[in-house]
Design brief:
Blueprint lengths: L13 E5 L4 H17 L4 E7 L14 E5 L9 H12 L7 E5 L4 H9 L5 E4 L12 E3 L7 H11 L29 E4 L11 H11 L4 E3 L14 E3 L6 H10 L2 E5 L2 H9 L3 E4 L5 H4 L7 E4 L2 E3 L6 H4 L7 H12 L3
Parallel strand pairs: 1-2, 1-4, 2-3, 4-5, 5-6, 7-8, 7-10, 8-9, 10-11, 11-12
Antiparallel strand pairs: 12-13
Helix pairs in contact: 1-4, 1-7, 2-3, 5-10, 6-7
């Protein structure tokens, strides 16, 4: 790490973005990177992302190159060395000089950044696993802030003026499944999450679907639970969409209802009619950033920024009765 002045973006021809994962965090990084491209359109923007997340970025016209990082290929005690070898062979760019922005802030991302041979490397102060030791400049951030705000700190430090109320989340367009229902009034429901205590219970899910009847509901997402809600108005697309297809499904929905998850952040980025369901997580810190999106938390529905300090820390189960009320609220806004 150095104490010298921060670089001037005008002096560079390319920027390497190191943000391999995860789904939600890549979405949260989009406004910061897009702001750089918008302010300095001469810059070639290259983005390193885990192979499974590249559909979030591929096809976005403002990105010049999306580099698939085969993270799952590097296992065991030698994984970091294999990743470094891959990076040395893959990441050095043809357009120089190039600046590296390590938004991931972990040992692996710092190693990838160093192996690219581009300098300087900028990281954030909440980096972990010793990553800061490999950064040439460390930008102070508020670790308690929402991820979008943390990531915006970096381009602001480089002199950009960014209005947080008018951000762009320019995800790839995606492609609808060939058998997707051809109608514009669908409620897309994503009821499952890998996070403990975030998924809807089968009882709450059935009650929510019943409350939305007879309006058409499409289930998306993945779950090990084989049970599914029943109803003539329900179409089950669970385990049937690729990530690129999921983006398009969420984009074209009349409303999206989603538990706290990566798909919730995709939905909020591209669809104002998104309702995020938060049982124990703090919506101020991890909720849908879009100020027009809605949040269920502590038994009521409002915008993320409107919950009290006590409410955001409340842990509450989403009961069948709460699900019934949520369904009625959504129907009232169709």
């Amino acid at each position: 790490m150095t104490d010298t002045a921060l670089p001037n973006l005008a002096d560079f021809r390319s920027v390497l973005i190191v943000k391999p994962s995860s789904l939600g965090d890549i979405v949260h990084t989009l406004p910061a990177v897009h702001a750089i491209k918008h302010a300095h359109p001469h810059l070639r923007i290259r983005w390193v992302a885990n192979t499974e997340w590249t559909p979030l970025l591929q096809g976005a016209p403002w990105l010049d190159e999306v580099i698939a990082f085969p993270r799952k290929s590097f296992r065991g005690l030698t994984a970091i060395f294999k990743a470094a070898r891959w990076a040395r062979a893959t990441l050095p760019g043809q357009t120089q000089p190039e600046l590296v922005l390590d938004f991931q802030g972990l040992l692996r991302s710092a190693v990838l950044s160093r192996a690219s041979r581009a300098r300087p490397i900028l990281g954030l102060s909440d980096s972990r696993e010793g990553a800061r030791l490999m950064h040439d400049h460390v930008i102070p951030v508020d670790a308690s802030a929402h991820a979008v705000d943390r990531y915006l700190t970096l381009p602001r430090a480089l002199g950009l003026t960014i209005d947080a109320d008018h951000l762009s989340f320019p995800l790839a367009p995606g492609t609808l499944p060939s058998d997707w229902p051809q109608r514009d009034d669908l409620i897309v429901l994503h009821p499952w999450s890998r996070g403990a205590g975030k998924s809807l219970s089968p009882e709450a899910l059935q009650t929510l679907c019943d409350a939305l009847a007879p309006h058409p509901v499409v289930l998306v997402g993945m779950s090990d639970d084989k049970s599914r809600p029943t109803g003539a108005h329900i179409t089950d697309f669970s385990h049937r969409t690729s990530l690129a297809e999921l983006i398009a499904c969420l984009r074209h929905a009349r409303w999206v209802i989603s538990v706290d998850s990566g798909p919730m952040h995709i939905a909020a980025a591209i669809n104002d009619n998104t309702l995020g369901l938060h049982t124990w997580s703090n919506p101020r810190k991890v909720g849908p950033y879009n100020p027009k999106a809605w949040v269920w938390k502590a038994g009521r529905i409002s915008h993320r920024q409107d919950f009290t300090d006590q409410e955001v820390l409340t842990e509450s189960e989403l009961t069948p009765e709460a699900a019934r009320q949520i369904g009625g609220w959504v129907l009232g806004r169709l």
